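Good morning N.,

You mentioned wanting to compare the apo and holo forms, so I went ahead and generated the holo version with octanoyl-coenzyme A. This is what I fed in:
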Amino acid sequence: MAYDTILVETSGKVGVITLNRPKALNALSSGLIRDLGAALDAFEANPDVRVIVLTGSEKAFAAGADIKEMAGKSYMDAYLEDFITLGWERVTKCRKPVIAAVAGFALGGGCELAMMCDMIIAADNAKFGQPEINLGTMPGAGGTQRLTRFVGKSKAMDMCLTGRMMDADEAWKCGLVSRIVPLDDLRDEVMKIAETIADKSLPIAMMVKEAVNTAYETTLAQGIHYERRVFHATFATDDQKEGMTAFIEKRQPSFTDR
Ligand code: CO8
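and this is what came out, ligand included:
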């Protein structure tokens, strides 16, 4: 399928979605969000794709929601169309692992979109921020909620109230991103991480993802209980038998996703 605002490719077991509105620094227009949702649907349905990578350009992952598109909206427009609900959170519904590869600006909705992914790998030129307050508005796609869970109250307040940007180093130190790599190596390094995950048992990777995400949705006691139940369930899989047998036999496992 051809898209106007994104590029889509597969590389082995990895599906790559590249946000592609270079003239607008990948501003997240409604068309882009529609395209992104359709591409995610297609990758989720494609059994050959086991991990999804979401990325942008060297200059911008995404510089936020499209300000030109939303500037004239009235309260009633926003309320009646439930602005941002439709499509935006599609990435959070993905069952396959999704990695955000962020170079350049990840601002406003761009930062929020990256935080919806399962992990963020940043190029050394990445810049993150929630600058909505500078536009007389505020984060609307999880910025006040996910950023606070990632970096804690004080820094989330700092970012959302001042609208300043943080660089990759600060983002790594405060746990927003899992790794920083040189810009020129971003694609290769992210593909290596994606391929490493793609070689695991997909159902087990999906269970791990669900369990980690549960930590954000529930109490510690409930999360531990959920984890224990899913851990028990892994013993019903062929891949658990294969993984442990392969270890004992000192060979690489050959998972079958069963
Ligand atoms: N929306 C629309 N167009 C944009 C956006 C954007 N978010 N960001 C940049 N552009 C456009 C510029 O208007 C410019 O277009 P043109 O050439 O036609 O004038 C082009 O991209 C290049 O931008 P600049 O010339 O400004 O590039 P610089 O390198 O000088 O600056 C910056 C880069 C610092 C990233 C700057 O462009 C900037 O500050 N952009 C806006 C960042 C921002 O405020 N983002 C938050 C947007 S609000 C938001 O995301 C709310 C999310 C709420 C939930 C989601 C709702 C949908």
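Residues 6-198 form a domain with the 2-enoyl-CoA Hydratase; Chain A, domain 1 fold (CATH 3.90.226.10).

Happy to go through it together on a call whenever suits you.

Best,
F.
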